[in-house]
Predict the structure.
Amino acid sequence: MVQINRDACTIQIVGVGGQGALTVSKIIGAAAVKKGTPIIISEIHGMAQRGGVVQTTIRLGEVISPLPFGQDVTVMVGFEPLEVYRARSQLTMDTIVVMSTDPVRPVSVSSGGQRYPEPGAVVEEMKKRLKCVFPLSAKASARTAGNERVTNVVMLGALTGTDVLPFSYEEMRSAVGKIVPSRSLEVNLKAFDIGYNETHGKKA
Amino acid sequence: MHPILEDEPGKKMLALGNEAITRAAIEAGVTVAATYPGTPSSEIGNTMHKVAKEAGIYFEFSTNEKVAFETAAAAAVAGVRAFSFMKHVGLNVAADAFMTLAYTGVRAGYVVLTADDPSCHSSQNEQDNRFFAKMSGVPMVEPSSPEEARQMMHYAFELSERFQMPVLFRTTTRMNHVRGIIELGKIRKPSGRVHFEKDPGRFVTVPANARKRHLSLLEIIPRMQNESEVSPFNRVIVPEKKNTIGSLKLGIITSGVSYNYVLEVLNNIELGVEARVLKLGMTSPLPDDMISEFSSECDLILTVEEGEMYLEEYVKAVLKERDVPTVVLGKRDGHFPRPMEYNPDIVARGIVSALEGEGMKIDLPVKEAIDWETLPEPPRPPVLCAGCPHRATFLAVRRATKGKAVYPNDIGCYTLGIQPPQSTGDLLICMGSSVGSAGGLSRVVDEPVISFIGDSTFFHSGIAPLVNAVHNKHRFVLNIMDNATTAMTGHQPHPGLPVDGMGDEAPAISIEKVCKGVGVEFVKTVNPLNVKETQKAFEEALAHEGVSVVITRSPCALKLERELRKRNIVRTKYQVYQDKCTRCDTCTRIFACPAFYKIGDEHYIDPDLCWSCGVCEQVCPFGAMGPVREEKGGE
């Protein structure tokens, strides 16, 4: 299942401003620093907070470029189904996709009369074309964990469950503890575990 | 202690480029630092704001970049290390001071950071500030990674002191906003007070002195160029993996983030060449000898650089002058683009295009194309947040003007008013242009003019044009949208707030008093979340002969929401009462809050997105929007 391209594992996070992608990359960063794994993370800030598209690229391994050649993405973590579809040109048949099925409708849809793609149709499209797709409702999992806002850590758990990261379950959990505030650690770890179990040992 | 202040040399840390730069400034013993916030440089100021007091540094968010530049420049002239930093267009504001400080120079190290933004991720242009170095004679360095940025800051301070010159530290978005591992260096203590040694012949640029100082500058430039020839940051790199053997000797001259992409390409794609890279870290003055020696050993030279033909034209000129016959290719022949930031794919295509022009045949590895079904792909532009007071202001303005007015806008979140249904952005050039341009428009257009400017932008560059407008008897309405923060760049304080860059209490400058003080007769302050009252204020302002100011004051919704969340305060959300809703679509048509959504033709408000501003209740003509009903009595 795991495919490491060349020297690096490249993780592409796509989503919407305010969904917590930055926290996820900081947690992966903490795991990398702890283990001594080279890491480069590229973020686009700026107007992202205002509901725009957010893309974060994380590269683990001996590379110096924050962006890969050939948009060579090992795994895409989609916080939002439309944004996964929008980023489809970065996918190869071998790219693993871990995606939330919860839509965040842009204003162009809610007030502008444009159509939003059925999340189910996006999942189906992915499954039809790629070998390895893990859809999940991050919102439902976060609710089960006890706080709707921890969808990002659910997604991180699901990413970890695919075994594509060069870090173990325990290493990632301890990295979560390094980054999230202690008062919300419990709910975050719970969210992480729920996400982890959504993908770990499962066939896509 | 903030992790960035840890005094543990050798310790490794994951840091954002901007954090690495801040750390390096602290390591270098910077004593005075100043900025005006601007993406992609903003996190340097945010970090300084958090740690300055503990680090013993004087830090300020200045009213604009020119003031920031001058504040730090003066400290360096007096004899302590200083640092000013700004986005690329900020250097335009500071350029007056920048150009002449090149004549006087400084006594202690002074680093001026410009953060360029190719692709305009959050800017109004893609200008290439490397030309400021060339134009001024100020030396320049350009890092490629957070750790190199950290090391280069030390080097820049050392250069600055050696040549008694300010140093331009040029970054781009993919440098500022890249996280990488840095290795902490030793922290040098900031200086205490110094005695100002008077030297008016050097530091007072009356024409007689300026002429002499220009000569000194011209004498320093060749010495700095000698340094560039031996600078540890200008060096030849040979790729480790592929492209080490081939019939053609390819030389690539590059700098900054482009270097990363060049190496990614050379290490991953077999081009069938023997490639080597001249990585330039000190890019002004450029090293003539190094460039011509490197080029004369190659069969073909490519210059790979985002932006303008800064390296390309220089390299061509040097090789011509030195009679080096090697062909140089770059943007002029169309192999590499001038607009937008680069990535490894763009660089690969450019290299292949240039090599094929030389008769080589290269097959770039192509990804297996996936044949995707077409699904709807609605755009997701950034929008004003739910609960944003600006959206309510724009609604009131459109009602007061019935949409028949010209709306100059300015730089800030409220720029997003250009989108429908607000459609309140007709002209925008730069910081403060809403006020200056309103004067000109009001003299020639046949409709009223209403300009929008934020509180921080007003202090930055809105006051001088307001003085101009009063004095020259222009007639327009200036709306100062006061949300009590510099919102777009990440909520930095400004002179209108009772706190300063050090986090200390500070006198808040009253916008009302400033406006009245410069002679505006009509100044009215309203709460924009009250749409009727706001509309009335604009109607009165429009009727006023001369310049009128309406201050719409309500805190930034994003900032407020974060603060409330920290205090565990949940306000009553709003909902659509389906029994009263007539599906008239007025709410989405004229207000378009991001919390609104529809299922079929039924309207709903997403409680996760609603920030309880209550404006929708005033928008709905049928009373079908209001506080969530089931929780009677609210909170």
Q: What stands out?
A: The longest strand of chain B covers residues 248-255. DSSP finds 22 helices and 22 strands in chain B. The domain at 570-627 of chain B is CATH 3.30.70.20 (Alpha-Beta Plaits). Chain B touches chain A through 64 residues (CB under 8 Å).
